[in-house]
Amino acid sequence: MSDQIDAKEKDYLYLAPSQIPNAGQGLFVSIAIYKEEVISLFKGESLSNDEASRRANLREDDYFINCLDGSILDSKHTDCFAKYANDPSAKGGNMVKTKFKSNADISIDDDDNICLIATRNIKIGEEIFTNYGKKYWTNFHRL
After folding, report:
1. Strands 37-41 and 114-118
2. pLDDT top residue among 88 and 128
3. Which of 3, 90, 122, 142 has the smallest CB count inside 10 Å?
């Protein structure tokens, strides 16, 4: 069971350059987050397999999330803080060891929303990191 933060995401989340070199923007918190709190919801367009394949062939699959029902959620053109949580163990699609550690999991909340849930207490100003998983990196630009 996950806990909801009683505030709008824009009031406690912000974007800034990621601490991971060449990773672009990262997701940061301006309040303390507690273990098992929902940090942010993933939002986006639900894609058919054909449309997901088409976008992947065009290398437009940077923000794909594989859903439990087999569909793909694409956050690329949607305002969504969650999509800015970077994978600390991936560098160019290769799994590597870094000094950064995951502090959130991609999960399902009590209302069946895809979200980021804190795996530990997170301090003010920390960047949110989550592991995308081998399937993401295997399929990245290859659907």
Report:
1. antiparallel
2. 128
3. 142
